[in-house]
Amino acid sequence: MSDSSSALRIVWIYPDLLSTYGDKGNVLVLRRRAELRGIPVEEVHVHSSDPVPAEGDIYLLGGGEDRPQILAAERLRADGGLKRAAERGACVFAVCAGYQIVGESYGDDDDNPLPGVGILDIRSGRGQVRGVGEIVADVEPSLGVGRITGFENHQGRTAIGPSATPLSHVVKGVGNDDGQTEGAVQGQILGTYLHGPALPRNPGLADLLLRWRVGQIPPLEPSWGERLHEERLTAVL
Ligand code: GLN
């Protein structure tokens, strides 16, 4: 947010291409948790034929199947708005196909490398087997999020380069290519394989994105989000 009077601008990138597992839930929960703290929100939905505004606060990218993923990456690269936004310090939350797209490169269906948007130092190729199922991971302690849960479904395997760090350490599931870590963080760019969608299942992750943009935020009374989080942890472990 540029000043205290302006709204938090949440930009949902390409709902027509990248929205496999109810990724709209991430937009709704982020908005709700901001508004419950009295933070006004402006929500912008960017269709894949539209330009990506460079002046957003938090950009959300969801998951996608292989072909829509390729199309989305090509359009985002040609457009340049997301890269410009990241260069001026905007926050990006990218899930699965979105995670791979914001990296340096990712593999197509035959594992030929294709260029990503290049705002997160990761490279993705194709794995031998699909990573499918429930995943539980412990987020890097300095981020103050704790344990997260989600559903993963990806053929891609992601290697983290020296400029990024793992988001979390896997307790159960697949995650990145090393079989030990899940997701990646670089400044305020956060990528993860967690569907679910991730933010409704992990309110703490939504609050991390809000803290990055607006600083300290008061805690909220635990509600259905926290209950869902607990329920999934109990069910999966
Ligand atoms: N197409 C990518 C893969 O299979 C991403 C899948 C997804 O977003 N669920 O790795």
From TrEMBL:
The keyword Ligase applies. Residues 9-202 form the CobB/CobQ-like glutamine amidotransferase domain. Pathway: Cell wall biogenesis; peptidoglycan biosynthesis. One of its GO terms (molecular function) is transferase activity. Substrate binds at residue 130. It holds the Pfam family GATase_3. The active site is at residues 96, 195. Keywords: Cell shape, Cell wall biogenesis/degradation, Glutamine amidotransferase, Hydrolase, Ligase, Peptidoglycan synthesis, Transferase. The keyword Hydrolase applies. SUPFAM superfamilies: Class I glutamine amidotransferase-like (SSF52317). Its EC number is 6.3.5.13, 3.5.1.2. InterPro entries: Class_I_gatase-like, CobQ_GATase1, GATase_3, Lipid_II_synth_GatD. It catalyses: L-glutamine + H2O = L-glutamate + NH4(+); beta-D-GlcNAc-(1->4)-Mur2Ac(oyl-L-Ala-gamma-D-Glu-L-Lys-D-Ala-D-Ala)-di-trans,octa-cis-undecaprenyl diphosphate + L-glutamine + ATP + H2O = beta-D-GlcNAc-(1->4)-Mur2Ac(oyl-L-Ala-D-isoglutaminyl-L-Lys-D-Ala-D-Ala)-di-trans,octa-cis-undecaprenyl diphosphate + L-glutamate + ADP + phosphate + H(+). The lipid II isoglutaminyl synthase complex catalyzes the formation of alpha-D-isoglutamine in the cell wall lipid II stem peptide. The GatD subunit catalyzes the hydrolysis of glutamine to glutamate and ammonia. The resulting ammonia molecule is channeled to the active site of MurT. HAMAP family: Lipid_II_synth_GatD (MF_02213). Belongs to the CobB/CobQ family. GatD subfamily. Forms a heterodimer with MurT. This is Lipid II isoglutaminyl synthase (glutamine-hydrolyzing) subunit GatD. It comes from Nocardiopsis gilva YIM 90087. The gene is gatD.
